[in-house]
């Protein structure tokens, strides 16, 4: 009844100057019958009868207005436009609300100049008191103003069908890609059943898509609107009308177990409620889940919310992203790029081309979202644009549509991203963790920490079946990389990804060494200022890992060692190396490691690992290490 109420609201409060009746009996009869069909929700019959009415009496202005409004509601915009124009041509003083409807038709057909003229007339002449009605009109006015300017400055846009390697005769949509660009997961609807399919990149070509997993895909329920974690280990997706659901649609999670996926489970409260939760998007560090919900407390009908993973493994009470992102209208399909700072989403609330457009917002240094930017025309049009993702390298966007020349009902397309709309550049470290001697895969804890902010950007356990991991690192920062496993020395690496770094992935084979006497390890994330021995704050991450190793292995004894290059006086180098080793020793004791388990020594320049002939070599020789003295 909502549609009928709105139609009647727009149509039946016309001034007396509008011809609300016809002297032509056939026209009036058809019009009266149309009202009965409107009341019974039979819009097709009502429209047919109104067509008969205006044909029988071309001066029947009110029938033209009603036919125009009804055609607009049925999305028959060209017919609506012709009917509005016929009504206006008959003169008189129609209610200003007719111009609101006419403007909406213009927006939905890309006729923004006409739409702006009509919506401005409505705003200036509307005498009603409905604030929502007037606010939407003002939103339409901003849309028209934005669209007229956007048409003057089109962005480069050339969508390319991803071809039969990915697309089928069925409906293919909602793509998602892992951070290494090696796996593409998407939804495919076959005879009304939605399932996930996966394609893998090999030799720079996508392989034939296959069903993702029998543990996730079902024949009874639909699976869709998914988000894959950058490392490809966690799949968040939407499941609707399931027995374990809390509402009509809930968010589910499956974790990869070896080469297959684990059985998915409902995330439960507080993320899922009796309301609609869908379209999840996981942050690259796995700690924040973004999703769409119509739960109470939002700003509009559908808003974007977020929940953080707490230390106890439970999700926090979701919070609304607020007016920086959400509007009194609808926001959908959030996608957080692996850079962790660029959010793409669709909205019909921010100024755009009409219907839903794609926007982006960036997380600033204060943790606030910037004002959303429209991706521009012709990426956005008067049609609905939604469900866009951006490849890890930021160069291409993927989306689904039924563009002309497609292979099926809906296909997946890609296009080059305009430079100004690209996310922050990223790289990643990808590898396998094994026992260095036996080469057996290990279940190990991998963590990557931003040394400036000391925030964890990645932490997870590798699978004992594969030993694989993949961690994303946005450029412009320095990172500590550690791998730990019970009974082994931990692995340490440092990645300095400053502005001069050229993006390329780090592919590593991490062979962990067992804790035995005599094993020596370089600590690559212990930092001092030149010629000083006070530990810099960035050292805390690695020192914490070392302290944890000693705590977990109560019989482990070590000697902390300091080393320098060969620049300067030998005695001064030996003294500096001793002081630096002492600083690490003191830190460990302050963190409750028994002094009798520790010794320290400065070796100065006497134990270089490479030649001191180059600065790169000298940098390697300036190091802090430790050796196992007893276990």
Automatic annotation (TrEMBL):
InterPro entries xref list: 6-blade_b-propeller_TolB-like, Bact_OuterMem_StrucFunc, CarboxyPept-like_regulatory, OMP_bac, OmpA-like, OmpA-like_sf, TPR-like_helical_dom_sf, TPR_rpt
A family per Pfam:
OmpA
**SUPFAM superfamilies for this protein:** Carboxypeptidase regulatory domain-like (SSF49464), DPP6 N-terminal domain-like (SSF82171), OmpA-like (SSF103088), TPR-like (SSF48452)
Supply the alphabetized keyword list. Cell outer membrane, Membrane, Signal, TPR repeat
Q: State where the protein is found.
A: Cell outer membrane
Q: Which residues form the signal peptide?
A: 1-19
State what protein this is by name. Answer: Outer membrane protein OmpA and related peptidoglycan-associated (Lipo)proteins
Organism name: Pedobacter africanus
């Amino acid at each position: 009844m909502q549609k009928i109420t709105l139609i009647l609201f727009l149509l039946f409060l016309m001034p007396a100057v509008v011809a609300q009746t016809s002297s032509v009996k056939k026209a009036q009869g058809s019009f009266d019958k149309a009202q009965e069909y409107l009341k019974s929700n039979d819009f097709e019959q009502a429209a047919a009868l109104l067509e008969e009415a205006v044909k029988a009496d071309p001066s029947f202005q009110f029938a033209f207005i009603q036919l125009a409004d009804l055609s607009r509601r049925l999305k028959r915009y060209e017919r609506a436009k012709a009917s509005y124009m016929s009504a206006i041509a008959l003169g008189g003083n129609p209610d200003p609300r007719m111009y609101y409807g006419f403007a909406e038709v213009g927006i939905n057909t890309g006729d923004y100049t006409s739409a702006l003229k009509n919506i401005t007339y409505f705003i200036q002449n509307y005498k009603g008191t409905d604030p929502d009605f007037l606010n939407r009109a003002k939103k339409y006015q901003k849309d028209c103003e934005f669209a007229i300017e956007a048409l003057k400055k089109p962005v480069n846009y050339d969508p390319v069908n991803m071809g039969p390697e990915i697309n089928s005769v069925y409906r293919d949509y909602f793509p998602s890609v892992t951070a290494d660009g090696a796996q593409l997961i998407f939804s495919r609807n076959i005879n009304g059943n939605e399932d996930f399919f996966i394609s893998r990149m090999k030799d720079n070509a996508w392989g034939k898509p296959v069903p993702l997993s029998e543990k996730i895909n079902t024949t009874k329920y639909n699976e869709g609107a998914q988000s894959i974690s950058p490392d490809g280990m966690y799949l968040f997706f939407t499941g609707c009308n399931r027995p374990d659901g809390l509402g009509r649609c809930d968010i589910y999670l499956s974790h990869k177990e070896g080469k297959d996926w684990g059985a998915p489970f409902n995330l439960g409260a507080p993320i899922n409620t009796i309301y609609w939760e869908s379209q999840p998007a996981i942050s690259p560090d796995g700690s924040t889940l973004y999703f769409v919900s119509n739960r109470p407390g939002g700003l509009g009908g559908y808003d974007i919310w977020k929940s953080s993973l707490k230390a106890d493994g439970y999700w926090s009470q979701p919070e609304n992203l607020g007016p920086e992102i959400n509007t009194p209208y609808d926001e959908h399909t959030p996608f957080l790029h692996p850079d962790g700072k660029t959010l793409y989403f669709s909205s019909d609330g921010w100024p755009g081309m009409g219907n839903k457009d794609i926007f982006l917002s960036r997380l600033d240094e204060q943790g606030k979202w910037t004002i959303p930017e429209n991706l521009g025309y012709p990426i956005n049009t008067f049609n609905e644009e939604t469900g866009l993702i951006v490849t890890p390298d930021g160069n291409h966007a993927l989306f689904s549509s039924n563009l002309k020349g497609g292979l099926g009902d809906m296909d997946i397309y890609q296009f080059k991203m305009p430079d100004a709309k690209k996310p922050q550049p990223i790289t990643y470290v990808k590898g396998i963790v094994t026992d260095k001697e036996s080469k057996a895969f290990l279940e190990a804890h991998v963590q990557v920490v931003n040394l400036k902010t000391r925030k964890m950007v990645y932490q997870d356990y590798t699978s004992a079946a594969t030993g694989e991991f993949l961690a994303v690192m946005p450029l412009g920062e320095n990172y500590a990389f550690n791998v730990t496993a019970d009974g082994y020395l931990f692995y340490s690496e440092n990645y300095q990804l400053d502005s001069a770094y050229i993006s390329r992935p780090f592919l590593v084979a991490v062979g962990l060494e067992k804790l035995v006497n005599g094993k020596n390890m370089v600590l690559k994330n212990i930092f001092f200022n030149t010629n000083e021995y006070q530990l810099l704050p960035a050292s805390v991450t690695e020192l914490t890992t070392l302290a944890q190793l000693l705590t977990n292995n109560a019989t482990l004894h070590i000697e902390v060692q300091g080393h320098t290059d060969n620049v300067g006086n030998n005695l001064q180098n030996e003294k500096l190396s001793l002081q630096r080793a002492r600083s690490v020793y003191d830190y460990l004791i302050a963190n409750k490691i028994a002094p009798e388990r520790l010794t320290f020594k400065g070796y100065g320049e006497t134990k270089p690992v490479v030649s001191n002939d180059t600065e790169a070599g000298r940098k390697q020789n300036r190091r802090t290490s430790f050796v196992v003295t007893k276990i």
